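Apologies for my clumsy wording, but can you show me some protein sequence, whichever is easiest, together with the matching structure tokens, please?
=====
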Amino acid sequence: MIADTPGLLDAIRARFAHVDSCPFTGPRIFFENAGGALTLSAVAETSARFAAIPDNQGRDNPASAALGEIIAKAKEDARGFFNAPEGGQIFVGESGTELLFRLIADACLGAPEGGVVLGSTIEHPASRSAAARWSEVAGKRHVLIPHDDATGLVTAEAYAAAVTPDVRVATILHTSPVTGMSMDLAAIAAAIRAVAPEAYIIVDGIQHACHGGIDLTAAGVDGYVISPYKVFSRHGYGLAYASDRLSALPHNALMNGPKGTWELGTRDTGAYATFSDVVDYFEWLGGQVSDATDPRELIVAAGHAIHEQEARLCQVALHGTGNLKGLAELPGVTIVGGIDNAAREGLVSFYAEGHPSPEIVAALRDEGIRVHTRKADHYSGNVLTPLGQADCVRVSFCHYNSEAEVAALLSAMARILD
């Protein structure tokens, strides 16, 4: 869809900063999107503009009123991006990880006594660490469902087999930053609700957000957290949705302040405003690939186009193009999560026999191609250790990447492994 529309990929790339050149090293191909996507130029401009404004919200002056309106608009924009149900709250925090800790802590402490906090071994430590800590503090049992090593997935069926009526809190990883596989969020949430309907369900959507396709109305979860720097915004804040029932639980707040509020201290209007820039971009892209006019329908159309483009890039990376062999065809290479996995979202992790992953990453860096090493540490050991691997190479695409860039990767890999 994107690649087949003349001029569209160029128009997309023109909206991002440093799309083909690093400000420190010069020309490069950026395949480290899972570590943080490229930033929209509009976000950089908005950040600079708001950083210079001295006024704060809640004052009796026009500037303060304008800031309040900008925040309110951004919350509505984010609600549309999430397709969040009526009610609940949208708010920012320090980071996605910090927000997951807050939501999981409040759910564990506020849920009825005893019972289970249910999660899975595929989860990023942001949610898994928070659940481990706060389940213990709250006197609850932390149960982890094993993921499937071959596919890099945990399924709704696996949750259904493990969930019990005494599950008080459940955590779900929407997409893995190591395997690149996306979990069936709506099906997993339904499996939990079928047995433990009152459980608080909290989702780590940090890796998933840049691929589009978030529908919290369909999922019916209580919390969903993203890190906007992974979805074309900037570092320095996280963004969360919390349902009314989760917001009603006791949590950190100022004495005698508004009931149920999650925000602590003066908000960064610029953070909110930059997420409006992200939503504007999704709506613009949706208008390029569809005839939709409704904002939510535009966001959905953009998500479909992003998914299709990234699937195409993954296919080229795995199976090759022209006379270039794909990663799956190169000698000694193993693809994490399997070669043809329908759950893959814009990411291919692999390791090569006789070639330590850090050496491959360094060699690609010297070729002007930026990828990343994932090690069997506290971030990725849950995936790599069961595979008997100390490390792997993560190549993460985004819809603004081109097939020509993937071809350059394959050409470089053939030389490196020769």
Notes: The CA atoms of residues 5 and 289 lie 8 Å apart. The chain has a mean pLDDT of 96.
